[in-house]
Amino acid sequence: MPMRIGTVMPDLTGATEWRNGAVTADDLRNRIVLVHFWAVSCGICSEQMPKVNEWRDTLAEKGVSVVSIHMPRYEADTNLADVDAAIAKYGLTQPCAIDNQHAIADAFGNEFVPAFYLFDAEGKLKSFSAGEHAARLVQPALDRLLG
Prior knowledge:
Elements: E1 17-19, E2 32-38, H1 43-59, E3 64-70, H2 80-90, E4 96-98, H3 103-108, E5 115-119, E6 125-130, H4 134-146
Parallel strand pairs: 2-3, 3-4
Antiparallel strand pairs: 1-4, 2-5, 5-6
């Protein structure tokens, strides 16, 4: 079942591996957090990566942390070499969990890529968006939290 607005962010445990450093919900306390689910086989995800990187780079000074979660859609998506190549190709420097067992996705109740979960500084879900227009839809929620 999908998370409801106001739900506290689940812990980010159960990742198969981490790239760019592991984080937990406790590490992100008192920060606005944007959790971004993606997959190497997702064309829409690749189109939205520049926006994710823009948020990571421009909003960090405003107290926003971006965490990416690679959630495989197919068996081929679990190939770590392909995931690492995509992380390098898209310039992902934020913490990136590799969730090959869907432990984090299950904790979020997430079935979608791309998907964005935006949490306020109290760790409560303020916005969720998924699909082709996900990045565009999360922008107004980010603006409200930062406004």
